[in-house]
Structures are given as structure tokens and as C-alpha cells.
Amino acid sequence: MAIGRERAEVIGLQAVAWLAANEELLPIFQGSTGASEDDFRRGLSDPVFQGSVLDFLLMDDAWIMAFCDTQSLGYELLMQVRAMLPGGEQVHWT
């Protein structure tokens, strides 16, 4: 099922909020990206920041499952959401 940009941004916002509340993963994200607490506050409604959070979550199946289970989302949906946000387009090198 294809999703629209508005729904993708809602799920992106949920991902940012979920990560901000995750005491185990938040420091890992901050350490790898340099994002501060202020960046999180400013980035809540920023689709570009939401995309960076989804890129981070998509690095580990366990993180995908934990977020999707919490939000009652299908695991495959996260890739669709990422594709709808800025920077998520498929790059064709040929």
C-alpha cells in the first residue's frame, strides 16, 4: 500500500519522538550525527530531520522492529515512509 507525503511526515514525527524518548538509542544517534537536544526540538516538524532519524533506524532490524511494534506499523512501511521524505529517493547510478 502506497502512502502519501502527509502520512509519511506523521510517521516521521512519531519516529523522532520515539527516538527522543529512547534512553538507549538517543545517545548513539546524537554521537553519530552530532545532533543536540535543541536539534531534536527544532527537527520535530522538519521532514529532512525526520528522514535522518529514519535513516538511522533503518540501519538495524531490531530498531525497525522496536519502533514499528510500538507504533503498530508494518516493518516494510518504514522504507516507504523514508522514500516519501526529502533525500529518500532512489539513486540510479547508471
UniProtKB/TrEMBL annotation:
Q: Which InterPro entries match?
A: DUF3572 (IPR021955)
Q: What's a Pfam family this protein contains?
A: DUF3572
What name is this protein filed under? DUF3572 domain-containing protein
What organism does this protein naturally occur in?
Puniceibacterium sediminis
